[in-house]
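Q: For a teaching handout, I want to show students what a protein-ligand complex looks like in token form. Below are the inputs, and the small molecule is zinc ion. Please produce the holo structure.
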Amino acid sequence: MEFSIKSGSPEKQRTACVVVGVFEHRKLSLAADLMDRISGFYISDILRRGDMDGKLGSTLLLHNVANTLCDRVLLVGLGKERDFRDKEYRQAVSAAVKTLNETGSTEAAMYLTELPVKKRELAWKIEQAVIMAMESVYRFDHLKSKQDELRRPLRRMVLSVPRRNELAIGETAMQQGLAIAQGMNLAKDLANLPGNICTPTHIAEQAQELAKAQGFKIEVLEQQQLEELKMGSFLSVAKGSRQPPKLIVMHYAGGKKGQKPVVLVGKGITFDAGGISLKPAAEMDEMKYDMCGAASVIGTFKAIAEMKLPLNVVGIIPTCENLPDGNANKPGDVVTSMSGQTIEILNTDAEGRLILCDALTYAARFEPAAVVDIATLTGACVIALGHQASGLLANHDALARELLHAGEETYDRAWQLPLWDEYQEQLKSNFADIANIGGRAGGTVTAACFLSRFTKDYDWAHLDIAGTAWKSGKEKGATGRPVPLLVHFLVNRAGEGK
Ligand code: BES
Ligand code: MN
Ligand code: ZN
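A: Here is the structure, written as tokens, with zinc ion included.
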């Protein structure tokens, strides 16, 4: 979809559709009121007849409204005016775009961006409108032999800003929103692919393609190089699979030479059957999403490269499968990680931490300004936080605050859990330096405690996205989270010259 920014009255827009909001109960927004007056109170008449009340997310499409230059007017319900906040704004934009996409307009001028949203500025509204619009039209149907073609999909959207001197702010926010949305789409596409197509090799090829298109450096380390690096923990997971593992290392050098990079590490298990500690059959298909951390890192690289962000960023992706096999890890096996620490694998299904620990050890060589890992790491995180917030744990409080703030900024929120020393006790092993599980209690915290043993040399934060990276049920599909959070985090860092 294409976007542009414009300032001007709604009744003067020569377009297929002008989109304006209506609050409950039948209270017209500023733009709707302008359209109403020019049309001789046609809109308020219709509302009075009861065709629409302004319920959040409802829509009503009107044709040939008198004295306007547009073919149609789309009324969008906004709910109660005093309750109109972030969530409501996003829902209203989404409802509008869905209706536009399914009806005759291929272009539209959107005035919802002029509505006041509590505590949010124009840039936020524009960025979110772009992200929500792209979300609403996203489809993943190319694996079906026949796609249902939309007759007249929405192709162009003009986003309105109230004043001419706000055009530049709008333009920048639109570009940022588009970059984030494109990054999310890439992350979703990769994640929605099934395990038989999205193998470690496929992820590596996709990352290479992106690197080539965007002009950043990439290395893909193969099995033999991983052996030379002594990544015994990562390799132990990979050996239960016929697909060769890869360690993808991307270098985006937008910042000054010598500036310490931010390192993003993404878990890339392309299918997690649990290994010998086999998972139950129900919903096991969703374990194709166990590479969503990796997908979010690649999506973030797409976004920051599109934006030409002035910052140095390294992306590290350990990727392999976790399957049961004659050569797979067995409960009780002891392996030696790249750091030299030995690990007793009490449960082969706690494999994410086993591949991440070696990637985190590897990260130290870049002398990072900060390291953030992103992983669908624990079912316990879904129990703790559900599907709204990603879990956040960190060994550095200022870094945690930066990430929490970035999440708030872009409605891709995280919630911090404690990484207290007391929890480390649960990882004691009788036979190795550390066990790979810490019992049922505090599963998300003990998983992060495990990782913390490998991140002592730098500021580090961990995002557990097990509950937020995809949706289950009827709407099954990847969400593209936490690409918005990560991009905002990096944008803020670039802004501060960190
Ligand atoms: N990929 C899973 C975590 C997961 C499970 C994410 C369900 C989303 C939904 C991870 O590899 C895993 O299996 N973790 C185990 C850890 C346990 C064995 C300590 C879990 O959460 O059950
Ligand atoms: Mn697992
Ligand atoms: Zn896993």
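A: Two things your students might notice: The chain has 14 helices and 21 strands. The chain has two domains: 2-152, 181-495.
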